[in-house]
Protein backbone atom coordinates (compact mmCIF):
# COMPACT_ATOMS: atom_id res chain seq x y z
CA UNK A 1 0.00 0.00 0.00
CA UNK A 2 1.46 3.31 -1.07
CA UNK A 3 1.60 6.10 1.53
CA UNK A 4 -0.37 9.23 0.54
CA UNK A 5 1.85 12.29 1.21
CA UNK A 6 -0.55 14.82 -0.15
CA UNK A 7 -1.72 15.89 3.30
CA UNK A 8 1.87 16.78 4.20
CA UNK A 9 2.01 19.23 1.33
CA UNK A 10 -0.99 21.01 2.80
CA UNK A 11 -0.24 20.48 6.49
CA UNK A 12 3.28 21.90 6.65
CA UNK A 13 2.44 25.34 5.19
CA UNK A 14 -0.67 25.46 7.40
CA UNK A 15 1.36 24.68 10.56
CA UNK A 16 3.93 27.31 9.59
CA UNK A 17 1.20 29.91 9.06
CA UNK A 18 -0.46 29.11 12.42
CA UNK A 19 2.90 29.32 14.23
CA UNK A 20 3.72 32.65 12.61
CA UNK A 21 0.32 34.05 13.55
CA UNK A 22 0.72 32.93 17.18
CA UNK A 23 4.15 34.52 17.42
CA UNK A 24 2.82 37.78 16.04
CA UNK A 25 0.02 37.80 18.60
CA UNK A 26 2.53 37.18 21.45
CA UNK A 27 4.83 39.89 20.12
CA UNK A 28 1.96 42.35 19.92
CA UNK A 29 0.95 41.56 23.50
CA UNK A 30 4.55 41.96 24.71
CA UNK A 31 4.85 45.30 22.95
CA UNK A 32 1.64 46.55 24.54
CA UNK A 33 2.86 45.57 28.01
CA UNK A 34 6.35 46.98 27.47
CA UNK A 35 4.89 50.29 26.36
CA UNK A 36 2.84 50.61 29.53
CA UNK A 37 5.80 50.08 31.89
CA UNK A 38 8.10 52.72 30.35
CA UNK A 39 5.23 55.22 30.36
CA UNK A 40 4.71 54.75 34.10
CA UNK A 41 8.45 54.71 34.69
CA UNK A 42 9.13 57.93 32.79
CA UNK A 43 6.10 59.53 34.38
CA UNK A 44 7.61 58.73 37.76
CA UNK A 45 10.95 60.25 36.71
CA UNK A 46 9.15 63.39 35.58
CA UNK A 47 7.45 63.71 38.95
CA UNK A 48 10.79 63.22 40.70
CA UNK A 49 12.40 66.00 38.68
CA UNK A 50 9.51 68.26 39.67
CA UNK A 51 9.97 67.22 43.34
CA UNK A 52 6.51 65.63 43.41
CA UNK A 53 7.35 62.57 45.49
CA UNK A 54 3.80 61.39 46.13
CA UNK A 55 2.93 61.34 42.42
CA UNK A 56 6.28 59.67 41.66
CA UNK A 57 5.52 56.92 44.16
CA UNK A 58 2.13 56.27 42.56
CA UNK A 59 3.75 56.05 39.10
CA UNK A 60 6.45 53.65 40.28
CA UNK A 61 3.88 51.47 42.05
CA UNK A 62 2.04 51.22 38.73
CA UNK A 63 5.29 50.33 36.97
CA UNK A 64 6.13 47.64 39.55
CA UNK A 65 2.67 46.11 39.21
CA UNK A 66 3.19 45.96 35.46
CA UNK A 67 6.62 44.36 35.81
CA UNK A 68 7.00 42.82 39.28
CA UNK A 69 10.33 41.20 38.40
CA UNK A 70 12.18 44.49 37.87
CA UNK A 71 14.51 44.98 40.84
CA UNK A 72 15.53 48.53 39.89
CA UNK A 73 11.95 49.75 40.16
CA UNK A 74 11.71 48.22 43.62
CA UNK A 75 14.89 50.00 44.68
CA UNK A 76 13.60 53.31 43.35
CA UNK A 77 10.27 52.82 45.12
CA UNK A 78 11.90 51.86 48.42
CA UNK A 79 14.23 54.86 48.34
CA UNK A 80 11.30 57.17 47.65
CA UNK A 81 9.39 55.76 50.61
CA UNK A 82 12.44 56.37 52.83
CA UNK A 83 12.92 59.93 51.61
CA UNK A 84 9.28 60.68 52.34
CA UNK A 85 9.58 59.23 55.83
CA UNK A 86 7.34 56.24 55.09
CA UNK A 87 9.81 53.82 56.67
CA UNK A 88 7.40 50.89 57.14
CA UNK A 89 6.68 50.68 53.41
CA UNK A 90 10.36 51.14 52.57
CA UNK A 91 11.21 48.22 54.85
CA UNK A 92 8.53 46.04 53.21
CA UNK A 93 9.86 46.80 49.72
CA UNK A 94 13.45 45.97 50.63
CA UNK A 95 12.49 42.88 52.63
CA UNK A 96 10.49 41.70 49.60
CA UNK A 97 13.64 42.06 47.48
CA UNK A 98 15.67 40.06 49.99
CA UNK A 99 13.03 37.31 49.99
CA UNK A 100 13.27 36.86 46.23
CA UNK A 101 15.35 33.92 45.05
CA UNK A 102 15.99 35.28 41.56
CA UNK A 103 18.23 38.26 42.41
CA UNK A 104 22.00 38.05 42.39
CA UNK A 105 24.46 38.61 45.22
CA UNK A 106 25.12 42.21 44.18
CA UNK A 107 21.44 43.20 44.30
CA UNK A 108 20.96 41.23 47.52
CA UNK A 109 23.75 43.19 49.23
CA UNK A 110 22.27 46.40 47.85
CA UNK A 111 18.85 45.51 49.29
CA UNK A 112 20.43 44.62 52.65
CA UNK A 113 22.19 47.99 52.71
CA UNK A 114 18.98 49.80 51.81
CA UNK A 115 17.11 47.94 54.56
CA UNK A 116 19.76 48.96 57.09
CA UNK A 117 19.35 52.59 56.04
CA UNK A 118 15.58 52.28 56.50
CA UNK A 119 16.04 51.13 60.09
CA UNK A 120 18.70 53.78 60.72
CA UNK A 121 16.52 56.61 59.44
CA UNK A 122 13.58 55.30 61.45
CA UNK A 123 15.68 55.39 64.63
CA UNK A 124 15.53 51.61 65.12
CA UNK A 125 19.21 51.39 66.02
CA UNK A 126 19.21 47.78 67.23
CA UNK A 127 17.62 46.50 64.00
CA UNK A 128 19.86 48.77 61.92
CA UNK A 129 22.93 47.40 63.70
CA UNK A 130 21.83 43.82 63.04
CA UNK A 131 21.23 44.58 59.35
CA UNK A 132 24.59 46.33 58.99
CA UNK A 133 26.52 43.42 60.46
CA UNK A 134 25.19 41.24 57.63
CA UNK A 135 27.07 43.42 55.12
CA UNK A 136 30.47 42.27 56.36
CA UNK A 137 32.55 41.09 53.43
CA UNK A 138 30.34 42.83 50.86
CA UNK A 139 31.00 45.88 48.69
CA UNK A 140 29.07 47.90 51.29
CA UNK A 141 31.28 46.91 54.23
CA UNK A 142 32.98 50.34 54.45
CA UNK A 143 29.64 52.17 54.47
CA UNK A 144 28.29 49.69 56.99
CA UNK A 145 31.23 50.28 59.33
CA UNK A 146 30.70 54.05 59.08
CA UNK A 147 27.02 53.62 59.94
CA UNK A 148 27.91 51.33 62.86
CA UNK A 149 30.38 53.96 64.05
CA UNK A 150 27.62 56.57 63.93
CA UNK A 151 25.37 54.29 66.00
CA UNK A 152 28.13 53.75 68.57
CA UNK A 153 28.64 57.53 68.85
CA UNK A 154 24.93 58.19 69.26
CA UNK A 155 24.79 55.49 71.93
CA UNK A 156 27.93 56.94 73.56
CA UNK A 157 29.55 53.51 73.43
CA UNK A 158 33.07 54.91 73.18
CA UNK A 159 35.02 51.61 73.52
CA UNK A 160 33.00 50.15 70.62
CA UNK A 161 33.47 53.38 68.65
CA UNK A 162 37.24 53.05 69.10
CA UNK A 163 37.18 49.49 67.75
CA UNK A 164 35.18 50.50 64.69
CA UNK A 165 37.26 53.62 64.00
CA UNK A 166 40.45 51.59 64.23
CA UNK A 167 39.04 49.02 61.79
CA UNK A 168 38.17 51.79 59.34
CA UNK A 169 41.64 53.27 59.62
CA UNK A 170 43.28 49.86 59.21
CA UNK A 171 41.30 49.31 56.00
CA UNK A 172 42.42 52.71 54.65
CA UNK A 173 38.97 54.31 54.83
CA UNK A 174 40.57 57.57 55.99
CA UNK A 175 42.32 59.01 59.02
CA UNK A 176 40.40 58.53 62.25
CA UNK A 177 43.15 59.68 64.61
CA UNK A 178 41.32 62.86 65.74
CA UNK A 179 38.13 60.87 66.39
CA UNK A 180 40.02 58.27 68.40
CA UNK A 181 41.47 61.08 70.52
CA UNK A 182 37.98 62.54 71.02
CA UNK A 183 36.72 59.14 72.19
CA UNK A 184 39.50 59.07 74.80
CA UNK A 185 38.44 62.55 75.96
CA UNK A 186 34.83 61.38 76.21
CA UNK A 187 35.95 58.42 78.34
CA UNK A 188 37.99 60.81 80.49
CA UNK A 189 34.90 62.96 81.12
CA UNK A 190 33.00 59.86 82.17
CA UNK A 191 35.84 58.86 84.51
CA UNK A 192 35.83 62.36 86.05
CA UNK A 193 32.07 62.19 86.62
CA UNK A 194 32.68 58.94 88.50
CA UNK A 195 35.42 60.54 90.61
CA UNK A 196 38.33 58.67 89.04
CA UNK A 197 40.75 61.54 88.36
CA UNK A 198 43.74 59.23 87.89
CA UNK A 199 42.01 57.29 85.10
CA UNK A 200 40.86 60.55 83.51
CA UNK A 201 44.42 61.88 83.47
CA UNK A 202 45.72 58.63 81.99
CA UNK A 203 43.16 58.81 79.18
CA UNK A 204 43.89 62.47 78.47
CA UNK A 205 47.64 61.85 78.38
CA UNK A 206 46.95 59.11 75.86
CA UNK A 207 44.75 61.48 73.83
CA UNK A 208 47.39 64.22 73.54
CA UNK A 209 50.02 61.61 72.72
CA UNK A 210 47.86 60.15 69.96
CA UNK A 211 46.80 63.51 68.48
CA UNK A 212 48.96 66.41 69.76
CA UNK A 213 47.50 68.69 67.07
CA UNK A 214 44.05 68.37 68.61
CA UNK A 215 43.04 71.22 70.92
CA UNK A 216 40.56 69.37 73.10
CA UNK A 217 43.02 67.02 74.76
CA UNK A 218 45.30 69.83 75.94
CA UNK A 219 42.36 71.94 77.15
CA UNK A 220 40.83 69.06 79.11
CA UNK A 221 44.19 68.03 80.59
CA UNK A 222 44.91 71.61 81.71
CA UNK A 223 41.45 71.92 83.28
CA UNK A 224 41.97 68.63 85.14
CA UNK A 225 45.32 69.75 86.54
CA UNK A 226 43.86 73.09 87.61
CA UNK A 227 40.99 71.28 89.34
CA UNK A 228 43.55 69.19 91.24
CA UNK A 229 45.34 72.36 92.36
CA UNK A 230 48.31 72.02 90.00
CA UNK A 231 48.01 75.51 88.47
CA UNK A 232 51.63 75.51 87.28
CA UNK A 233 51.12 72.22 85.46
CA UNK A 234 47.86 73.51 84.02
CA UNK A 235 49.57 76.65 82.69
CA UNK A 236 52.44 74.63 81.19
CA UNK A 237 49.93 72.33 79.52
CA UNK A 238 48.37 75.32 77.74
CA UNK A 239 51.84 76.34 76.58
CA UNK A 240 52.07 72.90 75.00
CA UNK A 241 48.74 73.59 73.29
CA UNK A 242 50.12 76.81 71.82
CA UNK A 243 53.09 74.93 70.38
CA UNK A 244 51.26 71.88 69.03
CA UNK A 245 47.79 73.27 68.19
CA UNK A 246 48.12 77.04 67.57
CA UNK A 247 44.74 77.11 65.77
CA UNK A 248 43.10 76.69 69.16
CA UNK A 249 44.85 79.67 70.79
CA UNK A 250 41.66 81.82 71.02
CA UNK A 251 39.99 79.06 73.08
CA UNK A 252 42.97 78.91 75.44
CA UNK A 253 43.44 82.70 75.76
CA UNK A 254 41.20 83.28 78.77
CA UNK A 255 42.40 80.18 80.71
CA UNK A 256 46.00 81.31 80.04
CA UNK A 257 45.20 84.73 81.52
CA UNK A 258 43.48 83.26 84.59
CA UNK A 259 46.22 80.69 85.26
CA UNK A 260 48.96 83.27 84.81
CA UNK A 261 47.37 85.34 87.59
CA UNK A 262 47.18 82.25 89.83
CA UNK A 263 50.84 81.39 89.19
CA UNK A 264 52.25 84.92 89.04
CA UNK A 265 53.31 84.56 85.40
CA UNK A 266 51.34 87.49 83.98
CA UNK A 267 54.24 88.94 82.01
CA UNK A 268 54.87 85.62 80.30
CA UNK A 269 51.19 85.37 79.41
CA UNK A 270 51.02 88.96 78.15
CA UNK A 271 54.02 88.39 75.87
CA UNK A 272 52.45 85.20 74.54
CA UNK A 273 49.07 86.86 73.94
CA UNK A 274 50.62 89.92 72.24
CA UNK A 275 52.62 87.68 69.93
CA UNK A 276 49.47 85.79 68.96
CA UNK A 277 47.53 89.03 68.50
CA UNK A 278 50.21 90.32 66.15
CA UNK A 279 49.55 87.41 63.78
CA UNK A 280 45.80 88.09 63.67
CA UNK A 281 43.36 89.95 65.93
CA UNK A 282 41.05 87.79 67.99
CA UNK A 283 38.23 88.86 70.31
CA UNK A 284 39.14 86.19 72.87
CA UNK A 285 42.79 87.23 72.91
CA UNK A 286 41.78 90.90 73.21
CA UNK A 287 39.55 90.06 76.20
CA UNK A 288 42.38 88.05 77.79
CA UNK A 289 44.77 90.99 77.39
CA UNK A 290 42.13 93.32 78.85
CA UNK A 291 41.87 90.99 81.86
CA UNK A 292 45.65 91.24 82.43
CA UNK A 293 45.86 94.98 81.79
CA UNK A 294 45.46 95.96 85.43
CA UNK A 295 43.13 98.93 84.93
CA UNK A 296 39.92 99.81 83.09
CA UNK A 297 41.72 102.48 81.05
CA UNK A 298 44.39 100.04 79.88
CA UNK A 299 41.71 97.44 79.11
CA UNK A 300 39.85 99.93 76.90
CA UNK A 301 43.08 100.61 75.00
CA UNK A 302 43.19 96.94 74.00
CA UNK A 303 39.66 97.14 72.59
CA UNK A 304 40.55 100.34 70.73
CA UNK A 305 43.66 98.68 69.32
CA UNK A 306 41.48 95.82 68.13
CA UNK A 307 39.14 98.27 66.39
CA UNK A 308 42.06 99.91 64.64
CA UNK A 309 42.97 96.59 63.04
CA UNK A 310 39.52 95.13 62.50
CA UNK A 311 35.97 96.58 62.75
CA UNK A 312 34.08 94.80 65.51
CA UNK A 313 30.73 95.56 67.13
CA UNK A 314 31.68 93.37 70.10
CA UNK A 315 34.92 95.28 70.70
CA UNK A 316 33.16 98.61 70.17
CA UNK A 317 30.52 97.65 72.75
CA UNK A 318 33.21 96.74 75.28
CA UNK A 319 35.09 99.97 74.65
CA UNK A 320 31.94 102.10 74.98
CA UNK A 321 31.11 100.48 78.32
CA UNK A 322 33.96 102.47 79.89
CA UNK A 323 32.94 105.80 78.37
CA UNK A 324 31.03 108.39 80.41
CA UNK A 325 28.38 110.24 78.40
CA UNK A 326 26.57 113.43 79.39
CA UNK A 327 23.26 111.58 79.75
CA UNK A 328 23.75 108.47 81.97
CA UNK A 329 20.19 107.22 81.36
CA UNK A 330 20.64 107.41 77.59
CA UNK A 331 24.04 105.72 77.86
CA UNK A 332 22.47 102.82 79.75
CA UNK A 333 19.85 102.29 77.05
CA UNK A 334 22.39 102.59 74.24
CA UNK A 335 24.74 100.17 75.98
CA UNK A 336 21.93 97.64 76.47
CA UNK A 337 20.95 97.91 72.79
CA UNK A 338 24.55 97.41 71.65
CA UNK A 339 25.03 94.37 73.90
CA UNK A 340 21.80 92.88 72.56
CA UNK A 341 22.97 93.40 68.96
CA UNK A 342 26.45 92.05 69.69
CA UNK A 343 25.29 88.88 71.53
CA UNK A 344 24.68 86.78 68.37
CA UNK A 345 28.12 87.78 67.07
CA UNK A 346 29.78 86.13 70.08
CA UNK A 347 28.44 82.72 69.14
CA UNK A 348 30.31 79.85 67.50
CA UNK A 349 29.07 78.44 64.20
CA UNK A 350 29.46 74.91 62.86
CA UNK A 351 31.28 74.98 59.51
CA UNK A 352 29.42 71.84 58.38
CA UNK A 353 25.76 72.67 59.08
CA UNK A 354 25.72 76.27 60.33
CA UNK A 355 24.38 75.41 63.80
CA UNK A 356 25.18 78.29 66.17
CA UNK A 357 25.76 78.07 69.91
CA UNK A 358 27.02 80.26 72.73
CA UNK A 359 29.59 77.68 73.72
CA UNK A 360 32.21 75.93 71.64
CA UNK A 361 31.40 72.28 70.82
CA UNK A 362 33.84 69.57 69.84
CA UNK A 363 30.96 67.46 68.53
CA UNK A 364 28.25 69.40 66.72
CA UNK A 365 24.83 68.71 68.27
CA UNK A 366 23.21 69.53 64.92
CA UNK A 367 25.04 67.41 62.33
CA UNK A 368 27.18 65.25 64.65
CA UNK A 369 30.42 66.38 62.96
CA UNK A 370 33.66 66.39 64.94
CA UNK A 371 35.88 69.50 65.15
CA UNK A 372 33.54 71.45 62.87
CA UNK A 373 33.45 74.55 65.11
CA UNK A 374 36.23 77.06 64.37
CA UNK A 375 37.95 78.58 67.40
CA UNK A 376 36.76 82.05 66.37
CA UNK A 377 33.44 83.76 66.96
CA UNK A 378 30.79 84.37 64.29
CA UNK A 379 31.84 88.03 63.91
CA UNK A 380 35.38 86.95 63.01
CA UNK A 381 34.49 84.39 60.33
UniProtKB/TrEMBL annotation:
The keyword NADP does not apply. GO terms for cellular component: cytoplasmic side of plasma membrane. The keyword Cell membrane applies. It is a single-pass membrane protein. GO terms for molecular function: iron ion binding. It is found in: Cell inner membrane. Belongs to the LapB family. NCBIfam families: PRK11788.1-3. This is Lipopolysaccharide assembly protein B. It comes from Hydrogenophaga pseudoflava (Pseudomonas carboxydoflava).
Amino acid sequence: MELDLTWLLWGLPLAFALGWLASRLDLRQWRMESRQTPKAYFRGLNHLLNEQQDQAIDAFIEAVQGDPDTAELHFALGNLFRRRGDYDRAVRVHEHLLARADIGRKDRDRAQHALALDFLKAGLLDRAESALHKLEGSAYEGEALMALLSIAERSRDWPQAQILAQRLEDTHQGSFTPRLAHYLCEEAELAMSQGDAAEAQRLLNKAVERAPQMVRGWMALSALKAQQGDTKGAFDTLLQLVRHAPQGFPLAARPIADLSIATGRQQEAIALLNEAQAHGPSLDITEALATLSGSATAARRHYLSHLEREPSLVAATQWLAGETLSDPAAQKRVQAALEHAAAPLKRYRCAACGFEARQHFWHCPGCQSWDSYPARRVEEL
